[in-house]
Design a protein that fits this description.
The protein has 413 residues and is of the alpha/beta class. It folds into two domains: 107 residues, Roll (Urease, subunit C, domain 1), CATH 2.30.40; 294 residues, Metal-dependent hydrolases (TIM Barrel), CATH 3.20.20.140. It is built from 15 helices and 15 strands. It is elongated. Bound molecules: zinc ion (ZN).
């Protein structure tokens, strides 16, 4: 195999620890890169003689795949953190505050763009290689160093009138714009189905906030709760909610019945899902993305990570926006998950922040693990805590609780 390769175009990345994520961690390992793609991953002593003439980059810590942020809203970065008014504030109160701030400040396109670019750059610096960005507007391509950004345009239509307007927008979208829904409480069944149909034709990801608040089910199934009041205040209650279909047992059951759940759908948050709901999501092969930092900030509760794992769903991980997550760091999300779910293994948490996210957003051919054929865009982590680690178990432990690594190095051939 090696005889077919011009060794001068091969580059070796060597480190005390190489974590491919989808296979065993390697002590004193190497990642062999050829023309922008990983050619091999293995122990240093297996490749050092084969590629003895190739340049070597030495990392003193860990080599691992870049992080995948599967849920963020870059356009909201301009708002900064939107705080809850008091400990009893609901998620609806926070949505109201966010909309008020957005309306009151009247940010210019330039300001929105600048803040989004800065946020994307911070994500890049922290080791994120790709992110799934959802927004109500289409941002122009961002300048500077950013992760690979996959953008979705979020449509909202909680009433018949708003649905008709959104359907017109959907019809007029350019070919390279990929729409998605916002949430079951803000988007009518007809609109969700139409967006999903377009996404299916385009083979695009369909990402939806699901069960982030208990009040979502109250609105959809019973016509009560804070989202009901919210829509009433905005004069947007016209019979769309509660749902006319009274045979739905839950929000997830409803999404399943209107046929928007499949392997290209990502259900984001999923804090208030039952065992039956998780069974439905697993059966539909839908992806789940957890946002523990945002959930904690908004005080909505913790997702049932252990139950998802028991149903063979490894959720992806997302920060959500700066408006509901002051840290906005995938390292912080991992550390928070370790704190909130101490029984979950570090390697599972690391898989959530890498390969699970890459699979959810359909980029596993390039990202999510260190494997032959994948992109040479990966990261190195250097930190004095890692330099004293003596076992694979210890390294994985450190990485998932470290929160702020001393040095994140971006590699790309
Ligand atoms: Zn979100």
């Amino acid at each position: 195999m090696s005889t077919l390769v011009d060794h001068s175009s091969v580059v070796l990345y060597r480190a005390p620890w190489v974590i491919p994520v989808t296979s065993q961690t390697i002590h004193n390992g190497v990642v062999v890169v050829h023309r922008g793609r990983i050619k091999a991953v293995g122990p240093w002593n297996e490749f050092s003689t084969i590629y003895s003439k190739s340049p070597i980059y030495n990392c003193s810590g860990v080599l691992m795949p870049g992080l995948v942020n599967a849920h963020i809203h870059l356009e909201l970065s301009v708002l900064g953190v939107v705080s809850q008014e008091n400990p009893n504030s609901t998620m609806c109160d926070w949505v109201r505050s966010l909309l008020q701030k957005r309306l009151a400040c009247q940010y210019s396109e330039e300001e929105i763009h600048f803040a989004a670019a800065k946020c994307a750059h911070n994500q890049f610096e922290s080791g994120v290689v790709v992110l799934l960005d959802t927004g109500n507007t289409t941002l122009p391509s961002l300048s500077g160093e950013t992760p690979d950004i996959h953008s979705l345009l979020e449509l909202i239509g909680p009433s018949a009138k708003a649905t008709q307007a959104a359907l017109l927008t959907l019809d007029g979208l350019a070919e390279d714009v990929f729409p998605t829904g916002h949430a079951p409480y803000s988007t009518s069944p007809q609109l969700l189905q139409s967006i999903k149909q377009r996404a299916s034709v385009k083979k695009s990801v369909f990402s939806l906030h699901v069960e982030e608040s208990r009040d979502e089910a109250l609105l959809l199934l019973q016509g009560e709760g804070c989202f009901y009041d919210f829509l009433q205040d905005r004069d947007a209650l016209d019979g769309t909610f509660p749902l006319a279909v009274n045979s739905c047992k839950s929000v997830v059951d409803y999404l399943h019945k209107i046929e928007v759940l499949d392997e290209k759908t990502i259900c984001v948050h999923c804090v208030f899902v039952s065992d039956d709901d998780i069974q439905i999501l697993a059966g539909a092969k839908s992806h789940v993305c957890l946002c523990p930092g945002s959930n904690k900030f908004l005080g909505v509760g913790k997702a049932r990570l252990e139950t998802f794992l028991a149903h063979d769903i490894i959720p992806a991980l997302g920060t959500d926006s700066l408006a509901s997550n002051p840290e906005l760091s995938m390292w912080h999300e991992m550390a928070l998950l370790r704190e909130e779910h101490p029984a979950v293994a570090p390697e599972t948490i690391l898989a959530m922040a890498t390969i699970a996210g890459a699979s959810a957003i359909g980029r596993e051919a390039d990202y999510g693990s260190l494997e032959p054929g994948k992109s040479s865009n990966f990261i190195g982590i250097e930190d004095k805590k890692i330099s004293t680690a003596v076992s694979e178990k210890e390294v994985l432990e450190i990485l998932t609780v470290i929160d702020k690594p001393e040095r994140v190095i971006r590699y790309s051939e």
